[in-house]
Design brief:
By secondary structure, this protein is of the alpha/beta class. It contains six helices and five strands.
C-alpha cells in the first residue's frame, strides 16, 4: 500500500524551512504532494506558476524525487480524499503554530475521518523563519541568503526588494 501525504502551503516564497520539512516528509512517505494554495484572501508576491516553479527548482536542487507539486484551492480534506492521501504534513516552528494547526487538524479529521495530521518540528536553525520574514527582510534590502534556497535567491530578492 502506497502512503501518500499532502504538504500544503502558500510558499510565498519558498524558504529553507519549507524545503527541510518536505525533504524530511519525503523520507517518511512513499509520495508527497506539495500543494501550493491559492488563497483568495491574500495577494501573493509571486504567482501560483512562479511558486510551483520555485518549488520544482528548490526540491530538484535538494534531490527530493518522490514529490508532485500542484496548485490547489478548496478544502484540503476533500482534496486528500480525491488524491488518496492519508495525511497532511505540517511543520511547526513554535507553540503558537501548534494552536492554529491543532484546530485545522481536528477540522480536517471531522471532514474526512481517514485523514490524519503529522507534525514535524522545524529544524532549530529555521524555527524563526517564515515567508513573511523573507518578504520583510528583502523589501528592506536585507540579505536573505540564509533564508531561501541558493538557486532562487536572485529571483526572490529582485522581486521583493523595493
Amino acid at each position: 500500500m502506497s502512503r501518500t501525504v499532502i504538504c500544503p502551503g502558500s510558499f510565498d516564497p519558498v524558504t529553507l524551512g519549507h524545503v527541510d520539512i518536505i525533504k524530511r516528509a519525503s523520507k517518511m512517505f512513499d509520495k508527497v504532494i506539495v500543494a501550493v494554495l491559492v488563497n483568495m484572501d491574500k495577494t501573493p508576491s509571486f504567482t501560483i506558476d512562479e511558486r510551483i516553479s520555485f518549488l520544482e527548482e528548490a526540491l530538484k536542487e535538494a534531490k527530493v524525487s518522490n514529490i508532485e507539486i500542484v496548485g490547489f484551492d478548496g478544502l484540503l480534506a476533500d482534496y486528500a480524499k480525491k488524491r488518496g492521501a492519508t495525511a497532511v504534513v505540517k511543520g511547526l516552528r513554535a507553540v503558537s503554530d501548534f494552536e492554529y494547526e491543532f484546530q485545522m487538524a481536528l477540522t480536517n479529521r471531522k471532514l474526512n475521518p481517514e485523514f490524519d495530521t503529522v507534525f514535524l518540528t522545524a529544524d532549530a536553525q529555521n524555527m524563526y523563519l517564515s515567508s513573511s520574514i523573507v518578504r520583510q527582510v528583502a523589501s528592506l534590502g536585507g540579505d536573505i541568503s540564509n533564508f531561501v534556497p541558493a538557486c532562487l535567491y536572485d529571483k526572490i530578492y529582485e522581486r521583493l526588494k523595493k
